[in-house]
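Q: I have 515 residues here and want to know how they pack in 3D. Can you give me a structure?
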Amino acid sequence: MLTEADSRIVIDRKLREAGWNIEDPNQVATEEPAADGRADYVLLDSRGRPLAVNEAKRFSKDPTTAKAQAEEYARSLKAPFIFLSNGEVIYFWDYENYPERLVENFFTRSDLERLVALRSQRKLLKSVPIPSKVRSGSDDREVRDYQQKCLAKVDEALTKNNRRLLVEMATGTGKTFTVAIMLKRFFEAGWAQRILFLADRIELARQAKEETFDVFLSDYPSVLLTGGRRSREGMITVGTLPTITSQLGAGGFSSGYFDFVITDECHRSIYSSYKHTLLHFDAIHIGLTATPNVGQYSFISDNEKKLIRNTYEFFNCWNPLTEQGKPVFSYGILDGIKDKVLADYEIFAAKTRITAEGINFEGEDYSPSELERRISFEDRIQLQVKEFVAMEAARGGGIRKAIVFACTKLHAAQIARFLNAEYPEWNGKYAEVITTDIADPKAAIRRFKREEMPAIAVSVGMLDTGFDAPRVENLLMMRPTSSAILYQQMRGRGSRICKRPYGSLKNSFLIYDFT
């Protein structure tokens, strides 16, 4: 029969993996007299003071059965933290502040010392006022009412000791800006010293750092990790899940390294192969998403319903009775349109029989989803382009920026060629393909955002999510999608309100639905 001594062999190994030298009495004391017994392990700080009591149980026992005993030991030794382990699982208990919780690993000495220092600095969040206006670079920027309400709701949830919070805000409503204010208040209130911000793609990570954190949070240094063993210095670490995953393990980020983990577009991460990375960090997790509540869309697939439910469950806000999620704060696209924060939109349905039903060609049937993937008809693409050109001429009002969502890189090239043929006066610069394999995608994006030409960006997947170009007034759906989540992200590329170069206000956009 396995005994407690067997579980201690595993515990010793896991302590060593977390950087503890269990043979050094200046780091780890064993069988330490405490209360009316002896503590199995006492982890000591660099000055020899108790940091944590670690109570060991045999493999077959639930280690939480030792809670009362461990708390007596911890209080008598004045150790602020407790670990409970049977070798297979580890619980961490900050017994003055939170219930015990499962963690992936033991914390390092520096993690625990930092937590002690952080506890001594912490103030009530309400002691840091929620601003109605902030300084961002050289400009004053208004904090909208719904953004202030979001900050207040997050404060309320944290004050109730919630450690997983989900915030839903529609594309274009300023999630990253709201988060920047949130992080500043966490730093000012002494709730955080290190924060991890996870973005869906490296381009979005760079955008968040350079356009928001570096401008608004210049007093709190941020670092962008792009792969390899990079310096970890920085109060805000920005990266993608693959990059952060590559920096776990020996010499990498420990379980207690970050105080907060902010995951943008979190519905993409929760049940992917990177879920273990999120679980590695014993931090307060805040998820950001524009994903709809499942009750809002009758056409959402069962697979996406499951994905959304998993997201809600990860952030502890799923109600199994109503089968609905209840995030800490929600502000959807209809709220934004009603409040004139987001541009309203209309849909021009340009479907054809082939688009709806597919086609039989040379004795073989092709479904609508296979068009431009398995089989392509240039006449059809040209007809779609001509319909768009005719509609734009009928609308009048000059050139409008547009994004075309294409099926493949070949399809994108064909669309751009036909569009440029319709506008020969722009010498082939009216439409430009922007995909990952062109010479300089960043330069192409910059041209599209800042210059008159190209008027139209034709892309395959690259501009679907997170791409911020407020002047976009037309979206051409030339690639079918069965994903309600992806469709919402694509639609959001036109939802920002802005001033046109010639002074009038862009407050609406048009979706050309060819699929």
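Q: Anything worth noting?
A: The CA atoms of residues 372 and 411 lie 6 Å apart. The first helix runs from residue 4 to 17.
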